[in-house]
Amino acid sequence: MGLKGFAEGGIASIVAGCSTHPLDLIKVRMQLQGESAPVQTNLRPALAFQTSSSATVHAPPPPPRVGIIGIGSRIVRQEGTRALFSGVSATVLRQTLYSTTRMGLYDILKTKWTDPETKSIPLTRKLAAGFIAGGIGAAVGNPADVAMVRMQADGRLPLVDRRNYKSVLDAIAQMVRGEGITSLWRGSSMTINRAMLVTASQLATYDSVKETVLERGLMKDGLVTHVTSSFAAGFVASVASNPVDVIKTRVMNMKVVAGTAPPYKGAVDCALKTVRAEGVMALYKGFWPTVSRQAPFTVILFVTLEQVKKVLKDFDF
């Protein structure tokens, strides 16, 4: 083991991330539906933040929710087809930092914890490896994650409030200049929690399903097995991570104006305000786009990974 596991995971993740970026953008826009109160606070900060906390709960009801097709059609109609790839440079950087780290570390830990005699590893250790790898990867990739969320969400804002980042590097530079370097790790606790859940559920499920299918002779080791295992892994990861993902998206996207209190004090405050104003099921906003993105992302990720491993099997680094 060396850098090969990181290289294999990084290449596969970048391919998967770019391929499914439009679905991820639609998911982010759906998760921000109903967040009208925080967006409007910058118009009247003196009134909006001097009232009691209960006043924000009784804000005017949000407009009707729009589905996957509706959101996608609206983006193309109002912003153009290219808008579906808004923030794709941030996706590339995020996958380079986050996914390369988590895939490489998971591979190392899984190899280290595999029983040399039976060549097997318990599910609990797979999950532990996923938690550790995901947490470290998220901490490394959080700046790109914040930039990606903001770039994807920018088109839904009024023209006067748009950030208009030119690229992921421009986004990071503007955040550091305008909000301080700590803004790059805004929502990092949620990012790390989500990454731990996604990595543990996604990678452990893929390995476990694939091993079970092969051991029972249900399928041969090939494309069909990889796709089946990947789809199962993507669905499980979506169910486990969606509530955390909604809160993470809203905390990262909130606009902080100097001299006024931020819309959310933190992840817990965001969760409470979201549930009070929109109901518990608001935590599963964008679930089907999440599944629609996570399933193909996971399929492309692991199918690509298997092919990259074959290409690099004779290289040692």
UniProtKB/TrEMBL annotation:
Family to which this protein belongs: Belongs to the mitochondrial carrier (TC 2.A.29) family.
Organism: Brassica carinata
Superkingdom of the source species: Eukaryota
Cited InterPro entries: MCP (IPR002067), MCP_dom_sf (IPR023395), MCP_transmembrane (IPR018108), Mito_Metabolite_Transporter (IPR050391)
Name of protein: Mitochondrial uncoupling protein 5
GO cellular component, one term: mitochondrial inner membrane
Principal subcellular localization: mitochondrion
Keyword presence, Membrane: yes
Subcellular location: Mitochondrion inner membrane
UniProt cross-references to Pfam families, sorted A to Z: Mito_carr
BP GO terms, sorted: mitochondrial transport
The keyword Secreted is assigned to this record: no
Topology of this chain in the membrane: Multi-pass membrane protein
Gene Ontology molecular function: any one: dicarboxylic acid transmembrane transporter activity
Residues in Solcar repeats: 4-112, 121-212, 221-311
Key words of the record: Membrane, Mitochondrion, Mitochondrion inner membrane, Repeat, Stress response, Transmembrane, Transmembrane helix, Transport
